[in-house]
Amino acid sequence: MKRQVSNTAINWHYIAVAMIFAVAIFIMVLYMPNLREIDSQILKTIRQFLLPFPQYIPLFINEIGKDYYIWPLVASGSVLVSHKHNLEAFMLILFTQLSFLVKEWIKNYVCRERPCGDAYPGFSFPSGHSVIAMCFYGILIYLVARYVRGFWRYFLISLFGLLIILAGLSRLWLGLHFPTDVLEGFLIGFILVNLFIILDKFFSTKAE
Question: Are residues 196 and 143 in contact, defined by beta-carbon separation less than 8 angstroms?
């Protein structure tokens, strides 16, 4: 029991640190007009670096998240249910949908214009793809680390980690978000992942 509490405390620490950075970026975006210029310069540098690489990479990653991971979510939930992890399947769907609602609320509150202007619908801050990818794949990484052993454990953790990075990178690659949009998205998703872990540990303790 002590180990369980200690592990939960670590997750609360992660949430506290992520919250500090997320709030700091949130305030900077709202009250530092010159941040957009800094963001634009960083974005320009990143895009110039990625220019030689094939454009189909970010377009493919963009397509995966186009319907907010509905098919990966259905597949993952089905696998969990088939292994009798019904509560975790429900929580995975719940937290992924919650990540969508959270990012929508912040977007509509901040109303930050995208670096590409009106060429792409919606507001820029935070990056919805980054929020949902970090939340969804982050939870899968935790579940794989908990239940899977051997080669597939390392393969799936590496794959999901790569997909998180590519989800954020693709938004910069296509010029649809500023770097702070993506960073804020990752921080929000990371907070949700740790909340999932805390709840999962709580229910696991109750079941023992």
Answer: no
Task: For residue 139, give every residue at least 6 positions away whose Cβ sits within 8 Å of its Cβ, in sequence order, or none.
Answer: 92, 95, 96, 193, 196
Dist. CA 172–CA 159, nearest whole Å: 20
**pLDDT, tens digit (0-9, with 9 covering 90-100), for 148-186:** 999 999 999 999 999 999 999 999 988 889 999 999 999
Do the Cβ atoms of 114 and 176 come closer than 8 Å? Answer: yes
| 7: CB partners within 8 A, 6+ apart | 201
pTM of the model: 0.90
Half-sphere exposure of 165 (CA within 13 A, CB side): 6
